[in-house]
Design brief:
The chain has 557 residues and is an alpha+beta fold. It folds into two domains: 284 residues, FAD/NAD(P)-binding domain (3-Layer(bba) Sandwich), CATH 3.50.50.60; 208 residues, Succinate dehydrogenase/fumarate reductase flavoprotein, catalytic domain (Flavocytochrome C3, Chain A, domain 1), CATH 3.90.700.10. A hairpin with a 5-residue loop joins strand 21 and strand 22. Helix 1 packs parallel to helix 19 and helix 15 packs across helix 16. The longest helix has 20 residues. The mean pLDDT is 97. Bound molecules: flavin-adenine dinucleotide. The site of flavin-adenine dinucleotide has 42 residues, from helix 1, strand 2, helix 2, strand 7 and helix 9.
């Protein structure tokens, strides 16, 4: 035996599982295809937003949340409709997860030194139906340190366990096969990859320099999703989302390749809900890319006007920050759009300064460095857009600015092969919207939404610009942003029970095999159902990784 338990994938889920094991005295082999620099996987790059329910941060801001409200929101978003089959464990995971988010989660995180910004973000405001998709209240709690800070304690524990002789790192070891004998997982086999000194996140070589095999009493698969491979994303693209885009930007490093899903299936694990994914419609090309096709997701406030590739304003609920997949469905299925992979924001300088946030730890250096004074200076007291947003405005290939609408549309047309936008038509739509601003009872759903958002102090102070006319020169210059579909999360995967045991085709566990994090659809093979409430992915890794580690520790006692 090389270890008690082998963990495949040194991202957040794998590190949490490893910690649960080593803190119970189990010996762990932690195997990852990337080098030591990449410890922590995607979580290192993440924004560090976490879904919490009825937290002290919410209460201080006057937000009234409850387990009942959160569970109602979760069910409305998930739309579980395969409860006898592919969703049978996902529903149980969902309930357990929401209870955790409303209960122990915050204190458990505090026990690992993870604390939160005083403001709470309002992600996925929803599809405007009480029983439909979306967060009724703000629940997106951003960790001091962003995702880098969330994964840091678990990286530290792993390194300490290695020094204590309980954990062995196997970097540049790519698992190609799970060894299952007599129905029981007994180890892994794979390829040793050539040394690679690339910095974190940069695609590394796949040159084989040898083979390896490791034996243990249990194997935990924590290998992440499929977002780095557009062909796989297209292969599983569901019909309900129309045709997959020919061109997308990539929101995850290249190692998020999804290979372990099929490898796990070959070993007897059941894959479910593969047609469920979570890709964003507000991606922009990174002017300073780290991984291939690197895109950054804009987390927009509610005020930018959103137009399709042909210059038609999107209908509600396709409003910025409301309904990610509803908007994706619209953009992929509306008349005349199938051949166009982009859409547009039109906004003002005043809006970008207050409303644009960029997802990713490196795009939020003040929060990542836990620099509270810098945060206050830049985001609350400061004038102008935060530095990283300003850099995109200046350097980003998808950003254009102009003093008037006609010039702006001309520049926007310069970013596509053919000029698809008509300035007069766009002017009519913006003027109609602007006309509603003077009306306190505005019939425009977006303006109603902006006013509603500003009733929440967190939005009014830090996230939603004071309502103004888009064509007001005092709010300018005008800004156009070309938006791409950005691949990110995989919502389906290996079906697991509440102990993160991988289930086989007959619904019984494959002995000794566990799965957690994104490869397990963040628990049960699809805890989110069809739609996520955001901030639920890191938490899903923590929750399912913890369950896997604890169960595997019991099994190997
Ligand atoms: C920019 C960005 C922002 C995000 N923001 C948020 C946020 O604010 N809130 C939130 O909840 N979520 C967020 N997420 C999502 C979240 O970070 C990820 O879903 C989560 O970290 C996935 O963790 P994981 O452990 O399941 O997998 P990963 O982090 O992908 O780790 C998997 C590891 O397995 C390794 N591996 C894969 N296959 C093999 C193999 N065959 N052999 C050996 N090793 C293998 C990979 O190299 C990798 O190191 C964000 C993600 C990104 C990229």
């Amino acid at each position: 035996m090389d270890a008690d338990v082998i963990v495949v994938g040194a991202g957040l889920a794998g590190l949490v599982a490893a910690h649960e094991l080593t803190s119970r005295g189990r010996r762990v082999a932690l195997v990852d295809q990337e080098n030591a620099t990449n410890l922590g996987g995607q979580a290192f790059w993440s924004f560090g937003g976490l879904f919490l329910v009825d937290s002290p941060e919410q209460r201080r801001l006057g937000v009234k949340d409850s387990l009942d409200l959160a569970w109602s929101d979760w069910q409305g978003s998930a739309g579980f409709d395969r409860t006898e089959d592919e969703d049978s464990w996902a529903v149980r995971w969902a309930r357990a997860y929401v209870e955790w988010a409303a209960g122990e989660k915050r204190s458990w995180l505090a026990g690992h030194g993870i604390t939160f910004l005083p403001t709470v973000g309002w992600a996925e405001r929803g599809d405007l139906r009480a029983g439909g998709h979306g967060n009724s209240v703000p629940r997106f709690h951003i960790a001091w340190g962003t995702g880098t800070g969330v994964v840091e304690p678990f990286v530290r524990y792993a390194k300490q366990a290695a020094r204590d002789g309980l954990l062995t790192f196997h970097h540049r070891h790519r698992v190609d096969h799970l060894i299952v004998e007599d129905g029981t997982a007994r180890g892994v086999r794979g390829t040793v990859l050539a040394e690679d000194r690339s910095p974190r996140g940069v695609a590394s070589n796949r040159d084989a320099v040898g083979e390896f095999a490791l034996a243990a009493r249990a194997v935990i698969v924590t290998s992440g999703g499929i977002g780095g491979d557009h062909d796989v994303v297209r292969r599983h693209w569901p019909e309900r989302l129309g045709t997959p885009p020919a061109e997308m930007v990539t929101g995850v490093p290249a190692y998020v390749d999804g290979r372990m899903l099929d490898i796990s299936a070959e070993a007897g694990a059941r894959l479910v809900n593969r047609d469920r994914m979570w890709h964003y419609t507000e991606g922009v090309r990174n002017w300073d890319p780290i991984w291939p096709g690197h895109g950054i997701r804009i987390l927009p406030g509610p005020s930018s006007m959103w137009f399709d590739a042909l210059g038609r304003r999107l209908p509600e609920p396709c409003l910025p920050g409301y309904d990610t997949l509803g908007t994706l469905r619209h953009l992929r299925t509306a008349d005349g759009l199938a051949d166009h992979d982009h859409s547009w924001f039109i906004l003002t300088q005043k809006i970008i300064e207050k409303e644009f946030a960029l997802s990713g730890s490196e795009q939020n250096p003040d929060i990542t460095a836990k620099d509270r004074a810098g945060f206050l200076r830049e985001r609350v007291l400061g004038r102008g857009a935060p530095g990283p947003v300003d850099a995109f405005l200046r350097e980003g290939a998808d950003f254009v600015t102009a003093p008037n609408l006609e010039q702006l549309v001309d520049r926007m047309n310069g970013l596509t092969d053919k000029p698809l936008l008509d300035a007069a038509s766009i002017r009519r739509q913006i003027e109609a919207r602007d006309l509603q601003l003077a009306n306190p009872y505005a019939k425009d759903a977006q303006i109603q939404g902006i006013r509603n958002a500003r009733r929440y102090i967190g939005d009014r102070l830090g996230r939603v610009a004071a309502p103004h006319r888009i064509l007001d020169p005092a709010a300018g210059p005008l800004i156009g942003v070309k938006l791409h579909v950005l691949t990110r999360k995989t919502l389906g995967g290996i079906q697991t029970d509440l102990d993160s045991r991988a289930l086989g085709a007959d619904g019984t566990p494959v002995e000794g095999l566990y799965a957690a994090g994104e490869v397990a659809g963040f628990g049960g093979g699809g805890v989110h159902g069809y739609n996520a409430l955001e901030g639920t992915f890191l938490g899903g890794c923590l929750f399912s990784g913890r369950a896997a580690g604890r169960a595997a520790a019991r099994q190997t006692a």
